[in-house]
Amino acid sequence: MTETLKAVIFDAATGEVTERPLTADEIADREAMQAEAEAREEEAEAKATARESALAKLAALGLTADEVAAL
Amino acid sequence: MAGAGKKTFTAGEVLTASDVNTYLMEQSVMYFGGTAARASAIPTPTTGMTSYIGVTGTATIPQIETYTGSAWQTPYGLTQIVNASASAAATITLDNVFNTTYENYRIEFNLTSSASGLIRIRLRDGSGDSTGTNYKFSAQQIVGGSWANLDNSTTENAFTCGFNDVTRASGSVNLYSPNIANLTSYNAQSSYQQYGTYAGGTINVSTQWTGFKIYATSGNITGNVRVYGVRNS
Q1: Does residue A1 fall inside a structural domain?
Q2: Is residue B60 pLDDT above 70, yes or no?
Q3: What's the complex ipTM?
Q4: Which of A 3-22 lie inside 8 A of B, CB atoms?
Q5: Domains annotated on chain B, with CATH
Q6: Least CB–CB distance from A6: residue in B89, B118, B211
Q7: B227 at the A interface (CB within 8 A)?
């Protein structure tokens, strides 16, 4: 069953609360956002992995943790 | 008029209409259903008059207000503007929360999400969401004593305020001058599980925003969002 995505809207001036399904544009925006967030997360993970690898190589060359931190 | 102070009546003293009006009526806390009813009943308020504005809608917050000599104003630093709760919503939109009454605002949220994702807010005006890539911010996350990037951008279409998983995220957002035709900036701090997050940034357009939308980049959100105006003086 397809999930119905809803928008909830509060109007502070009137106190009115309305609910409606997301529009096609809003759904497309949401999907783009999810794809972007996933790509960003993968990029961050790759960067962290590369950093760990670089630190390990520096340690293998004989640099101390203090020397690595000073770079 | 309010400001007459206190009068101690003595036994046998005549209670005049003026005394009743001055010492009792105008120095009591008067109840009105809304600000329009108050303006009609008190066209010329005097400094120190106090009133209670009752609920006129499900999202309208009752307020005690005191007349300062130039305006009716709540006597405390933070005034609740809206208290919004929603369940399994893709987005929660709050309209007509920012106006000229306050320069700065505080948003507090307690949200659970059906999936892991960033929590974001997007500013709005009368024409809808501001979806241009004008939001600039840095968001960091701390866990185990170490900071790491959470989300950073100079070309995003919303502010990142934190992260949520399927447990619960709570946090606050300080929003500076959203309804002034100048740059609007924010900072946010939030937490979920053992993680703490901090974010700050600016939207690079000078629009007078009137509201915002809060959502998670993945999944639906359930919980409450409350907005407070920060008293200017």
Answers
A1: no
A2: no
A3: 0.84
A4: 3, 5-17, 19, 22
A5: 17-73 (no CATH), 78-230 (2.60.120)
A6: B89
A7: yes
